[in-house]
Amino acid sequence: MKKIAAADVFFTPEHREQIEKTAAECGYTVDFYPDGHLPPERAAEYEIVYGCCLPGELKAAANLKWFCCSFAGVDIYMDESIYPHPGVLLSNSSGAYGITIAEHIIMVTLMLLRRMPEFEKVVRERGWLRTLPMRSICGSSITILGTGDIGTNFAVRARALGAKAVRGVRRTQKAGDPAYDAMYTFAELDSVLPKTEILVMALPGTPETHHILSRERIALLPEGAYVVNVGRGSAIDQEALMEALNGGHLAGAALDVMVPEPLPKDHPLWDTKNLLLTPHISGNMSLGITCDRDVALFCEDLKNFASGKKLKRFVDRSLGY
Amino acid sequence: MKKIAAADVFFTPEHREQIEKTAAECGYTVDFYPDGHLPPERAAEYEIVYGCCLPGELKAAANLKWFCCSFAGVDIYMDESIYPHPGVLLSNSSGAYGITIAEHIIMVTLMLLRRMPEFEKVVRERGWLRTLPMRSICGSSITILGTGDIGTNFAVRARALGAKAVRGVRRTQKAGDPAYDAMYTFAELDSVLPKTEILVMALPGTPETHHILSRERIALLPEGAYVVNVGRGSAIDQEALMEALNGGHLAGAALDVMVPEPLPKDHPLWDTKNLLLTPHISGNMSLGITCDRDVALFCEDLKNFASGKKLKRFVDRSLGY
């Protein structure tokens, strides 16, 4: 019997049952590793690995055919040398994180627009203050850089909250998605930034997205704009962002991702003005619906794999997505 | 020429122009008092007062026919003795605050569900923590107590965010509003609370709503429920709420209103577990669209008043709403 290693920390008894049932239908048995790690002495038993095991743990899986990562962002699994052989297929769990990360984006955007960090400071000191100027998602011009599952889940919600315009910017041309008021390509980004009040970034970490929000592009954003990043820290020129916040060109930013992570205690990001930092939690697996969706996506692709079809969430390591 | 006093702190030149234009059409001139106060020596000149002047300032307005309060909640203007004569009409600005307060409710609800107070504490100490259980608005059962402008603006948004059920509870029976999955009366509240994961309260301060969320009703909420109050602090038995939070029956609460306001430095609310306090800011007038809407509502009712029609936002002081 062919074998699957399911190595992740979030599986409930219901998840295990669902994975085992689908595996049996496809001719596999499943071993679970609830600490999320693939033990080196057993790694060679598995044709399929699903979960969050470390990049360095895959090398020992000499008979591995497919690694299904339970994350959406798989940039740390791009290095070809971590695999036992070049034929190992890689897939991600894009589609599991849209709801939770969209809710995170709404929360931090409202916290910035409604001056919550300042009000919270007043409350911590048991004070009372009622008069800081606020803004609203309603009526705002929003640009979403990265229009995958996360960006699109947020776009739908931003429009429901009354945003004036929700523009999507993506790598390549694509037919208009009804979630967006207009769709642009990376090449058109410079023309979209000057009319952007809130820039939301949900991009994978690839060579193409590295520092895509450069110093020059930060300057193209209007005075008083906001930046929210939930994709990868590498997408922003962090030095330039800190300057734009400390100098007042930007009204605020919320970073759930940054370089490096975890952030060292002496890093200047901690002290940057109007910056709301969160420790890469926007997509964490503690939200039940995210976990349920992650398992469902794996089971769907397991059926594809077993019947010789293309994996739906296949990642091409030569392209980085 | 008959005269209007417009006494509030938020008027822009555009607001003044709009008020003056409508006033002229109705046969009035306007004096503006940008500090929000009606000077006693001039109060008798005005037939109409619009704004946020203090209850004690109205008595001197011997010729007052109509006071249009720029707030939505007018409980502090209910006492008959503050008026120069019983014939003074009172109206409020219900309708101006729905968007801003709905955004506040979404923000604080997500902050509670996503454990932001705890993550923010970690970030303040420059730490890194990724694993607190989170919940989502998506899939949650929400009950909204008070289905006016504010409750309904939130209901529409909660459904767009994927809430499983959004129930409205109001004073009297009313035909179903499409913003809600179901509509109940105050008399049915006890049957709705046990299936409520998130209780949102947006009620005016009236004798009927005083302590409507009593100790007994807090106990009817399921273990792990959340309470958000943006109406009036008097609607909650605050002692019982603190006990339910400190004892762990409730998972969290967000209060923008409380008793008393401002909260004294030694009040036990400051130290209550899983309580997110804000200093009555959810509807403050610093949000442009709120101010614009407030002025538009006054101008609409000014036309009604001048042509002898009923005021659209008339408040019956004998009923309290």
UniProtKB/TrEMBL annotation, chains A, B:
One of its GO terms (molecular function) is NAD binding. Keywords: NAD, Oxidoreductase. Residues 107-282 form the D-isomer specific 2-hydroxyacid dehydrogenase NAD-binding domain. The keyword NAD applies. It comes from the Bacteria. This is Dehydrogenase.
